[in-house]
Structure formats: C-alpha cells, structure tokens
Design goal:
about 200 residues; single chain; 15 strands; about 10% helix; mainly beta; six-stranded antiparallel beta sheet; nine-stranded mixed beta sheet
Length: about 200
C-alpha cells in the first residue's frame, strides 16, 4: 500500500503552483509586474470547521548577497470562520526589520467595509486570498517599490489553528510584541524570486 500524498495549489499573483506536504516550488515574478500581481496569495483552507479569534501570520525573509536578511511580517489578528463565511480580523499588524536592526510597526484596525483591512483578506468558497499587495501599496512605512526589489524572498504562511489544507508543522516566531508565536503550528512555505 502506497499512501497518497495530498496535493493542492497556491496562487501567487497570476501564477499557480502545486503544494506538496506544505511546500511550494519557487515562483518567479518580474519587477514590471504590479505589486498586486507579485504579492497576492491565494490558498485552499479548511472551512468545514468553525473557528473564532485565530491569527494568520505571513513572514518574509529577503535573502541578500551580503548575508543579511530583511524581515517583514504581516499578522491578521482575531479572524473567524462561521459556516464557511469569513469574519474579518480586528487588526492587521505589519512589522519590518532591516539590516540595521531598526524597524517599524504599522497597524490597521477597526471594521470598515471599504478599508484596507477588510479588503485585504477575502474568502471565496474555500479559497482564502491574502491581498498583501494592496496592503503594501497603502501602508505608510516604506515606499511601494521596496517590495519589488530584485531578490529572492523566502515566505512562510502559518496559523495558530489548522485551517491550511496540505500544510506542514512549522515553528515561526512572529517578532511583533512576542505574542504571535506560532510554535508547532501548521503552514506552507516556498520562495518568490523577483527578477
């Protein structure tokens, strides 16, 4: 008997690649692509179970030639799924740390149907789309072009509840305030190349 491994896909911008055991293959994007095409991520999640007040964390490492890594983190806080419907998070926290070790944090909170927080996370049937490109365009910490620098980016997506289909155990420490520590959580990982 040979076990069948679950396989699904993740969409990054306009490109769709398979996920196997929580890993997806490298996706190559062009610097001429829009920020939304580079950084919109859609994946299949488990909507068969209702959840309340859970978090989703996305962490980026920009692999630089000098051995230093810029780190960026997005945390959607207190999301809910009820009968297959998304209850929008109460806050989006963005944290970044550059080569110097200095960084900044950006918050967006409060329900506004036309606001960045509400529009940046969408559930359609069982496909969850994290519209990070929308966030990157609208946040005020750094210029939009910062997110289109030619480089390799390792990306990790995790949650403190097992919503991601075909995920793998992960141990990611979200920097911000140390309260988003997704130790032994489930998630996916892969690499995005911007060329």
């Amino acid at each position: 008997f040979t076990p069948v491994l679950s396989t699904q896909t993740v969409s990054i911008g306009s490109d769709t690649v398979p996920i196997s055991d929580g890993l997806f293959q490298t996706v190559t994007k062009s610097t001429s692509d829009t920020i939304e095409n580079i950084w919109n991520i859609s994946l299949e999640i488990d909507t068969s179970v209702d959840y309340s007040d859970f978090h989703i964390g996305i962490k980026f490492f920009k692999r630089e030639d000098d051995g230093s890594d810029d780190i960026g983190e997005f945390v959607y806080r207190n999301i809910g799924i009820n009968s297959g419907n998304l209850i929008v998070p109460d806050m989006l926290v963005i944290n970044g740390i550059g080569d110097s070790g200095s960084g900044g944090t950006y918050f967006d909170s409060g329900y506004d149907p036309n606001g960045m927080l509400t529009r940046s996370i969408v559930l359609d049937n069982n496909i969850l789309t994290l519209k990070l490109g929308l966030v990157m365009k609208n946040q005020t910490m750094v210029k939009e072009d910062t997110f289109k620098v030619i480089e390799d980016y390792d990306i990790f997506i995790t949650s403190n509840v097992p919503i991601i289909v075909d995920s793998k155990p992960m141990n990611i420490e979200i920097i911000n305030e140390s309260k988003y520590n997704f130790s032994n959580s489930n998630g996916i990982e892969g690499r995005i190349e911007i060329r």
